[in-house]
Amino acid sequence: VHPNVSQGCQGGCATCSDYNGCLSCKPRLFFVLERIGMKQIGVCLSSCPSGYYGTRYPDINKCAKCKADCDTCFTKNFCTKCKSGFYLYSGKCLEKCPDGLEANNHTMECTSIVHCEASEWSPWSPCTKKGKTCGFKRGNEVRVREIVQHPSAKGNPCPATSESRKCIVQRKRCQKEGKGKKNREEKRKKPNKDESKETRQESKGRAARRQNREQRENNSKTQPKKRKAPNKEQDLAPVDTAH
């Protein structure tokens, strides 16, 4: 063994030197060179750091640098995250997205353009004027729809969600509050508070006379009839004996 190579290495190194650090790694670890000032030191890691991708060989596993515009990558030609100012599209980092796509500043990716979508119109509302449905001949009716898909930055904007048009109806009178049929019936059932005391007394007098009359009729039905007394003058009349 070379005198500069040590066998008692630490930190996952299989072989190492005092000057260059790790020269080889233990199985399944990745070898990567880290720059410290003007010096490069070999280290052994379980996974490659950001900006590197790993390749496995029979004798050694190495970490290689991604492209300059790529922050993380799967292979040298397939980026998974771009550096600031670039947009990811199909594994590549682009300064400008292709035609038909738009840049998403939140994910830093090129995405498809999404246009606005609206639902079908609702049926027309009843004809109204100033919030009422009676007392007029010409009014307005409206219909509405909902937005089911909002557009992306370059997508077509959403259309109007409501429409209004003039309408003509057969004019009918509005029922005033307190004078409807129901209110009139309830008013009839309530006693008249303005009724005079004299009228109430007459009503009580008629009821009392009717009660007395009915009581006399009942008494006459229950008492026995008196026999009519004979006429004494007729009994004392002379008898005609001329015959």
TrEMBL record:
This is R-spondin-3. GO terms for biological process: positive regulation of non-canonical Wnt signaling pathway; Wnt signaling pathway. SUPFAM superfamilies: Growth factor receptor domain (SSF57184), TSP-1 type 1 repeat (SSF82895). It comes from Tyrannus savana. Its main location: secreted. Residues 11-110 form the R-spondin Fu-CRD domain. Residues 171-243 are annotated as: Disordered. InterPro entries: Furin_repeat, Growth_fac_rcpt_cys_sf, R-spondin, Rspo_Fu-CRD_dom, TSP1_rpt, TSP1_rpt_sf, TSP1_spondin_dom. Pfam families: Furin-like_2, TSP1_spondin. SMART domains: FU, TSP1. Keywords: Disulfide bond, Glycoprotein, Heparin-binding, Repeat, Secreted, Sensory transduction, Signal, Wnt signaling pathway. Interacts with the extracellular domain of FZD8 and LRP6. It however does not form a ternary complex with FZD8 and LRP6. Interacts with WNT1. Binds heparin. Interacts with LGR4, LGR5 and LGR6. PROSITE patterns: TSP1 (PS50092). The gene is Rspo3.
